[in-house]
């Protein structure tokens, strides 16, 4: 086994092209790990009875990457056995059923990677400066994550 | 004054004396999501007092873009990529600092 395979790596990407589950999960595979846990966020076709045509995402890219790096650092503090982490988020137009976000984490045993993936998506929704616009037939709506601590809870 | 062209020069820019004689500096203001729609642009350089509370900074920006007033209760700033609530927090701004208007986020 190559020595470089043992070094834990973070793979962070914001891109407008279609995300690939195969590509992201392969990034974190490691001969030291018996588990790869995965989260895929896909786009639903409806909201409050309205048909969603597609989603559009934008980001404060440099800060989003910095915040995602902080999430990776936190994961490694909380679950030291975690090996590799990949967090990929799509920007621009995302058609219905396609993935907006893919998170993959590897660890020697499954408990840590399962918990870490949950932490990654929950913290991303609370802290990473990315915005989603839902496009309906005749209107659109900027969404607000309930995890966002400064969002107005009243609509 | 809005829209002044950014100049390269000495680190501290001497502005005209304001209340207490504070200096001003040029910062890059970034607008995202709904705030970009209301302001009608995504980025610009604004001259603001170097020492200013986050709420005062918001008020300076609303003077330039009054339509932003409707989202005052929903936004925070990111100053040099750190979140800052609108309030009494005193900011010490440097020329070229990035100040971003951050509406409620919805990643993931």
TrEMBL record, chain A:
Pfam families: MoaE (PF02391). The keyword Transferase applies. SUPFAM superfamilies: Molybdopterin synthase subunit MoaE. InterPro entries: MoaE_sf, MOCS2B_euk, Mopterin_biosynth_MoaE. GO terms for cellular component: molybdopterin synthase complex. GO terms for molecular function: molybdopterin synthase activity. HAMAP family: MOC2B. This is MOC2B synthase.
UniProtKB/TrEMBL annotation, chain B:
One of its GO terms (molecular function) is nucleotide binding. It holds the Pfam family ThiS. Keywords: Cytoplasm, Molybdenum cofactor biosynthesis, Nucleotide-binding, Phosphoprotein. It comes from the Eukaryota. Pathway: Cofactor biosynthesis; molybdopterin biosynthesis. Residues 1-22 are annotated as: Disordered. GO terms for cellular component: molybdopterin adenylyltransferase complex. GO terms for biological process: Mo-molybdopterin cofactor biosynthetic process. NCBIfam families: moaD. PANTHER family: MOLYBDOPTERIN SYNTHASE SULFUR CARRIER SUBUNIT. This is MOC2A synthase. It comes from Climacteris rufus.
């Amino acid at each position: 086994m190559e020595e470089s395979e043992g070094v834990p790596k973070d793979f962070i990407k914001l891109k407008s092209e279609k995300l690939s589950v195969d590509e992201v999960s392969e990034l974190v595979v490691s001969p030291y790990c018996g588990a790869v846990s995965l989260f895929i966020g896909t786009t639903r076709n409806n909201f409050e009875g309205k048909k969603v045509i597609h989603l559009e995402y934008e980001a404060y890219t440099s800060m989003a990457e910095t915040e995602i790096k902080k999430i990776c650092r936190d994961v490694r503090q909380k679950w030291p056995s975690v090996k590799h982490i990949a967090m990929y988020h799509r920007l621009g137009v995302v058609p219905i059923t396609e993935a907006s976000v893919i998170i993959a984490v590897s660890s020697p045993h499954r408990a840590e990677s399962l918990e870490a993936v949950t932490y990654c998506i929950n913290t991303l929704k609370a802290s990473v400066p990315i915005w989603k616009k839902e496009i309906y037939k005749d209107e659109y709506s900027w969404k607000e994550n309930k995890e966002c601590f400064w969002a107005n809870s009243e609509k | 004054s809005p829209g002044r062209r950014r100049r390269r020069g000495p680190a501290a820019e001497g502005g005209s004396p304001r209340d207490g004689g504070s200096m001003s500096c040029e910062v890059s203001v970034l607008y995202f999501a709904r705030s970009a729609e209301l302001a009608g642009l995504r980025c610009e350089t604004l001259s603001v007092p170097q020492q200013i509370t986050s709420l005062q900074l918001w008020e300076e920006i609303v003077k330039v873009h009054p339509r932003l007033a409707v989202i005052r209760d929903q936004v925070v700033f990111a100053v040099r990529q750190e979140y800052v609530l609108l309030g009494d927090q005193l900011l010490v701004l440097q020329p070229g600092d990035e100040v971003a208007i951050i509406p409620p986020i919805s990643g993931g």
